[in-house]
Write a structure and sequence with these properties.
Length: about 200
């Protein structure tokens, strides 16, 4: 059975917490250094894999497909829900700091860049809204709290920019944490249904 979007946000947050509780350790692709345990240091794709594995346990009836091509395109959508598909969801991570607590300068670009080549949350909104990949389409952001770059401010900035490109539905939100990583300890999951802007 397919969740509503608010239910899926809760399920995603619970599965993220469960995946984090298994203390997965990511490895730096550059240095080979093992990061401190927790889901926070994992690249977005790997984190989603871990979260979906937990969803398979907690919600065995939920049909999920990962990284399926858009119709007529080689680009892929992060997650499809249902069989037949009812929801297509693009997922983005906001992680303002690295494993060592130093600021990650790419975090803002990953959410707010207006350029399609950056594959940000803002640019993905238009891509998924204007596609015919599923009857319902959404953007999901999961992020970690930071006093210097508050998650709430980032979400408000995203909403402001996204509304210039798509019709953005209501915000749905669920908290995450406390998590095991000393830097990526708390945060939230957010999602919005999206549709193309009306023409004319």
């Amino acid at each position: 059975m397919v969740s509503s979007l608010p239910e899926f946000v809760e399920d995603f947050a619970n599965a993220l917490n469960a995946a984090d509780g298994k203390r997965p350790a990511a490895v730096s692709p550059r240095s080979g250094r093992i990061y401190q345990p927790g889901i926070g240091p994992h690249p977005e794709d790997r984190a989603v894999d871990l979260i979906v594995a937990e969803l398979a346990i907690s919600r065995p009836g939920l049909r999920i497909s990962l990284r399926q091509c858009y119709p007529g395109s080689k680009q892929t959508c992060d997650l499809l829900l249902g069989d037949p598909v009812e929801w297509a969801i693009e997922i983005k991570m906001f992680r303002p700091n690295g494993d060592n607590g130093k600021p990650d300068d790419t975090a803002i670009k990953d959410i707010l860049s207006p350029f399609a080549s950056d594959r940000s949350a803002v640019s993905d909104c238009r891509k998924i809204a204007e596609s015919e990949i599923a009857p319902h389409r959404a953007i999901l952001i999961y992020g970690f709290d930071d006093q210097r770059k508050p998650l709430g401010d980032m979400v408000e900035a995203f909403e402001t920019l996204a509304r210039t490109r798509v019709r953005l539905g209501n915000r749905h939100e669920a908290p995450i944490g406390p998590l095991v990583h000393p830097v990526h300890r708390t945060g939230s999951v957010f999602a919005w249904e999206v549709a193309p802007l009306s023409r004319g």
